[in-house]
Amino acid sequence: MDINQRIASKVRALRDEQGLSLDALAERSGVSRSNISLIERAQSSPTAQVLDRLASALGVALASLFDDGEPAHASSPLSHAADQTEWTDPESGYVRRNLSPSASSPLQLVEVRFPAGKRVTLDSGARNVELHQQLWMLEGTMEFTRGEESWRLKAGDCLAMHVDCPIIFCNPGRQTARYLVALTTQLTRKS
């Protein structure tokens, strides 16, 4: 299954699970009904910003939209490099590769290759899960802004942050930056 089909299946399944119409998800996410419909039919390659808005509206982590949908108990604890899913943001060209196997785990690892001079803003609103991530720079330089705080990371630096407000990812350098993201999710209680 290609990545757009995987995203399509996951968004549709989450929307159906929550009993949301296309109109309701469009209203919650700020993504047009027609765009969601195209995404669910795998006829559109959504941007990182659109996927983040959908994930937030569906109350899940962005990373979960790339899951293969296999039941965790049936999944292998091994993820071969050849089987790892890659997705490219059509707007910025950044590439995210899911390193973790589908087996149930509170931790997900993602490798990111971020082109020089590019920038992505994720709204990262409230969700039904609490997200924490650590970013470990492998190559190049990246600037991360979370709310009012900003950091500049170089190879070897590691940043831990709670994902609960807008985050800006920016590569100010002249070479592609590469970093590892370790992401944990924890269900939050609804009030």
Structure description:
This protein is of the alpha+beta class. It has 2 domains: 64 residues, 434 Repressor (Amino-terminal Domain) (Orthogonal Bundle); 113 residues, Jelly Rolls. It is built from 4 helices and 10 strands, in the order ααααββββββββββ. A 6-stranded antiparallel beta sheet has the order 1-2-3-10-5-8, with no helix packed on it. α2 crosses α4. The longest helix is centred in the N-terminal third of the chain and has 15 residues. The radius of gyration is 16 Å and the shape is globular.
Secondary structure layout:
Blueprint: H1 3-17, H2 22-29, H3 33-40, H4 48-58, E1 86-88, E2 95-98, E3 107-114, E4 119-122, E5 129-139, E6 141-146, E7 149-154, E8 158-163, E9 167-170, E10 177-187
Antiparallel strand pairs: 1-2, 2-3, 3-10, 4-9, 5-8, 5-10, 6-7, 6-9
Helix pairs in contact: 2-4
Summarize this structure briefly.
The chain is of the alpha+beta class.
Instruction: Find the CATH topology of the largest domain.
Output: Jelly Rolls
**Quick one: how many beta strands?**
10
Helix proportion: 10-25%
The CATH superfamily name of the largest domain is: Jelly Rolls
Strand content: 25-35%
How can the largest sheet be summarized?
A: 6 strands, antiparallel
CATH architecture of the largest domain: Sandwich
Radius of gyration: 16 Å
How do the strands of the widest beta sheet line up side by side? 1-2-3-10-5-8
How many domains is the backbone divided into?
2
Described by the principal axes of the CA atoms, the overall outline is globular
